[in-house]
Amino acid sequence: MKPTVRLQRRPLAPHLRIYRLTMTMTMSILHRLTGIALYLGTLLLTWWLVSAAWSPGAYATFRLFIGSSAGEIVLLGYVWALLHHLLGGLRHFVWDMGKGFDLPAANVMARATLIGSLSLTAAIWVAGHLFGGAT
CA-to-CA distance for 78 and 60, rounded, in angstroms? Predict the structure, then answer.
């Protein structure tokens, strides 16, 4: 007589739907998204440099775009992505030193990253408009 083999149901891997979205999870996702935004923003930076080197007409076209409402929104998003990614990188640097892993410290650093990036972006944007910016 053959032994019967019982097939047991394998446990399913947990999915994001069963987890409550936490601040540290949100900051991790935002860190990745801002990294992608920085790649795309590099195209904007390249356009600026190439148009400035190419001709006055090419630079005027770039200035027309960047001075428009859409261009300012893109530039504002790029500045925020740069600062958020920078502060997120500093948070990771602190973790690399073996500090800030406990939940309260991780939450404080996550909030500081978000508040800091928004505050620095606002400060840079206001300073740019107050002191003339790119005219």
Answer: 21
